[in-house]
Task: inverse folding
C-alpha cells in the first residue's frame, strides 16, 4: 500500500516541480521579503516587526494560494488528460491514488514553505533581527494551514472543475481564517444570520487557529513579536488540522471512488 | 465452458449515462454478454460510438456499470486481485509527458509492487521488444503517436500479465508497427496469455484472432470464431483476364458482371455466384483474352461487419438483438 502511495506521491512531486507558476510564486515571495527590508527602513525601530509580519504573511498567503492552485489542478488534470486511465487500471485503490496525490502535494508545499521560511530568515538576519522561537512556531502553524487548505482544494477537485473548486476552496479559506471576526461581527445581527454563520463556521475548518498572532487566547494577547503560543498549542493546532485533513481526504476519496473516467 | 477456463465473462453488461444539462438518458451498453477463453486472442470490433471503449473501460474499473456482471480471471469486478494480473493499454494513450519510457515502466512496476531489480530488468526487455531502445532517454513529450502506443504497450506488460486488454493497439502505427504489434499479440498467445483487443482494422482481426465479437449501438451483434461467423457460401466469382493489345473493352464481357474494372490491358470482373463462369470464359477466349485469375469470393469479415452494423441501425433490429 505505502509503495503505491509513494509512487503516486513522487510522480506528483515531479509533475508539480515542472509547473512554472510555482517559480513565479517563489520570485514573488523573495520580492515581498525585499520589499519588507525597504518598508522596515521607513519605520523607526520597527524594522524587525515589519520583517516578521511581511515574511509570515507571505508564507501564509502565498502558501495557501499555491495549495489551492495545486489542489484544484493536479487531480483534475489527471482525469482531463486521461493519464489516470493507465494508473487506476492497475492494482491501486482510488483512495490510495487520492492520498498519493495529496502526499505529493505535501512534499511540494513543504519544500515551498521551507524556501519561503529560509527567505524570511535571510531577511531577518540581514536586518539584524534575531529569529525567535515564536517565528519558528508561526512557520509551523502556517505550514499546517497550507496543508489543510490543500486538502480543502482537493476535496472540491474530486468532483468539480478547477474554476469552481478554486472559488469554493478560496471561500472556505477566507471564512475559516476570519471565523472569530465573522462570529463577532454577527453577534448582534438577526437570529437567522447568526444561525447561518454558526452553521457555516461549523462546517469550515478552523484555519484561524493557525494564524493566532495578534489574537487573544485565554484572556491574554499572543504575538509573534512578544509572547507567543507555547509548543503545546502548536501541537494541538496541528492535531486539529490533521483531523480535518483526514476527514477531507476520506470525503475526497469517497467522491472520487464514485466517478466514471470516460 | 467451465468458469475457470474463462479469462473474461461478461453477462448482460449495461451502462447508462445522463447528458450534463438535459439529464437525458443515453444507453452506451444495452445488455452486452460474451466470454473469452483463457489463452485466446479475442477481437472486439465495432464502428465509432458502438460501445467498445465503454466496455473496455468498464472491464478495467474506470467506469461503473449500471447493470450486469463481469468476471475477470475468475474474480468478480471490482477486483484488485484481477487487476494485478491484467495489462492494459488505453485508447489513444496519454502518459505523463515529463517521464521517459523507462520511468513510465518503472512507475507501472511500482504500482504492481515489483522490486527495483525486476522493474529495471522488465523495463529494459520491454523497451527493446516494442522497438523504443533508441528513444530510451527521450521524454514522452517528444514521442510520436506511434511511439506513445509502443510505450503504452511496454508499461502494460510490466507485470507479465495473464490477460492483456488493448484498446485500439494498432491505432497510429505505420504498417511495420502494426505488423510488430500483431506479432507481439501472437507471441503473447503462444506464451499462454489471453489477449482482448478492440480495433477498426478488420484485416488484423481476421489475421490473428481466435474469436471475434461485433458490437454496434451498445449491443453485441455477432460473436464467434471468424470461421463460424463468416458464411462459406459463394458470394460471387472474380475473374481477371488480359485483353489483346489495342483491344477495346468488349461489352459482351461486361454482360452479367456485377462489377467491371479495367486497368491497362487487364480487365477485372465480378460475376454473380450463380453465373455461368464457363460461358463467360468462352466469350473472353473468343475475344482474344487470356485468363489471369479465377477466384471464388466468399463473405469476408468486412462484409459481415457492414451487414451487422447496418442491421443494428435498423430500428426493428435494434429492438430485438440476437447475437449469433
Result:
Amino acid at each position: 500500500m505505502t509503495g503505491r502511495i509513494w509512487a503516486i506521491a513522487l510522480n506528483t512531486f515531479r509533475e508539480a516541480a515542472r509547473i512554472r507558476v510555482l517559480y513565479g510564486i517563489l520570485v514573488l515571495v523573495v520580492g515581498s521579503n525585499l520589499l519588507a527590508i525597504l518598508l522596515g527602513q521607513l519605520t523607526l525601530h520597527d524594522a524587525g516587526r515589519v520583517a516578521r509580519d511581511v515574511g509570515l504573511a507571505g508564507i501564509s498567503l502565498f502558501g495557501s494560494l499555491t495549495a489551492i492552485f495545486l489542489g484544484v489542478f493536479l487531480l483534475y488534470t489527471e482525469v482531463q488528460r486521461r493519464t489516470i486511465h493507465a494508473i487506476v487500471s492497475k492494482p491501486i485503490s482510488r483512495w490510495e491514488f487520492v492520498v498519493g496525490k495529496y502526499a505529493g502535494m505535501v512534499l511540494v508545499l513543504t519544500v515551498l514553505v521551507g524556501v519561503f521560511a529560509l527567505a524570511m530568515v535571510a531577511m531577518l538576519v540581514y536586518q539584524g533581527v534575531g529569529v525567535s522561537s515564536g517565528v519558528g512556531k508561526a512557520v509551523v502553524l502556517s505550514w499546517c494551514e497550507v496543508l489543510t487548505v490543500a486538502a480543502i482544494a482537493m476535496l472540491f477537485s474530486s468532483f468539480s472543475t478547477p474554476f469552481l473548486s478554486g472559488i469554493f476552496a478560496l471561500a472556505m479559506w477566507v471564512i475559516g481564517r476570519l471565523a472569530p471576526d465573522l462570529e463577532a461581527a454577527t453577534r448582534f445581527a438577526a437570529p437567522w444570520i447568526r444561525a447561518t454563520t454558526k452553521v457555516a463556521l461549523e462546517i469550515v475548518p478552523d484555519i484561524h487557529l493557525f494564524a493566532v498572532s495578534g489574537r487573544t487566547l485565554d484572556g491574554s494577547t499572543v504575538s509573534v513579536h512578544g509572547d507567543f503560543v507555547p509548543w503545546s498549542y502548536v501541537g494541538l493546532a496541528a492535531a486539529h488540522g490533521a483531523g480535518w485533513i483526514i476527514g477531507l481526504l476520506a470525503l475526497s476519496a469517497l467522491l472520487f471512488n464514485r466517478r466514471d473516467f470516460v | 465452458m467451465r468458469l475457470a477456463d474463462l479469462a473474461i465473462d461478461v453477462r448482460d453488461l449495461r451502462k447508462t449515462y445522463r447528458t450534463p444539462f438535459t439529464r437525458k438518458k443515453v444507453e452506451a451498453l444495452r445488455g452486452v454478454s460474451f466470454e473469452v477463453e483463457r489463452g485466446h486472442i479475442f477481437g472486439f470490433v465495432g464502428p465509432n460510438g458502438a460501445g467498445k471503449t465503454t466496455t473496455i473501460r468498464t472491464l478495467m474499473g474506470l467506469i461503473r456499470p449500471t447493470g450486469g456482471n463481469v468476471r475477470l480471471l475468475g474474480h468478480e469486478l471490482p477486483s484488485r486481485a484481477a487487476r494485478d494480473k491484467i495489462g492494459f493499454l488505453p485508447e489513444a494513450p496519454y502518459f505523463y509527458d515529463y517521464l521517459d519510457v523507462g520511468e513510465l515502466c518503472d512507475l507501472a512496476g511500482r504500482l504492481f509492487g515489483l522490486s527495483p531489480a525486476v522493474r529495471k530488468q522488465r523495463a529494459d526487455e520491454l523497451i527493446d521488444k516494442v522497438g523504443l531502445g533508441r528513444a530510451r532517454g527521450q521524454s514522452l513529450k517528444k514521442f510520436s503517436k506511434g511511439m506513445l502506443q509502443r510505450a503504452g504497450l511496454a508499461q502494460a506488460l510490466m507485470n507479465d500479465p495473464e490477460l492483456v486488454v488493448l484498446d485500439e493497439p494498432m491505432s497510429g502505427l505505420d504498417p511495420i508497427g502494426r505488423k510488430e504489434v500483431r506479432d507481439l499479440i501472437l507471441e503473447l498467445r503462444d506464451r499462454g496469455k489471453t489477449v482482448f483487443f478492440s480495433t477498426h482494422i478488420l484485416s488484423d482481426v481476421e489475421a490473428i484472432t481466435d474469436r471475434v465479437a461485433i458490437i454496434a449501438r451498445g449491443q453485441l451483434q455477432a460473436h464467434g470464431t471468424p470461421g463460424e461467423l463468416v458464411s462459406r457460401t459463394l458470394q460471387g466469382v472474380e475473374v481477371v483476364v488480359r485483353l489483346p493489345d489495342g483491344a477495346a473493352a468488349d461489352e459482351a464481357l461486361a454482360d452479367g458482371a456485377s462489377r467491371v474494372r479495367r486497368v491497362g490491358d487487364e480487365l477485372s470482373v465480378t460475376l454473380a455466384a450463380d453465373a455461368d463462369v464457363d460461358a463467360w470464359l468462352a466469350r473472353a477466349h473468343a475475344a482474344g483474352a487470356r485468363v489471369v485469375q479465377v477466384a471464388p469470393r466468399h463473405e469476408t469479415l468486412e462484409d459481415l461487419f457492414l451487414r451487422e452494423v447496418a442491421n443494428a441501425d435498423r430500428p426493428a433490429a435494434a429492438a430485438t438483438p440476437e447475437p449469433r
Chain B touches chain A at residues 17, 54, 57, 60-64, 80-81, 83-84, 86, 88, 90, 93-96, 98-99, 107-108, 110-113, 152, 155-156 (CB under 8 Å). Confidence is low (pLDDT under 50) at residues 317-324 of chain B. Chain B has twelve helices and 14 strands. The two ends of chain B are 17 Å apart (CA to CA).
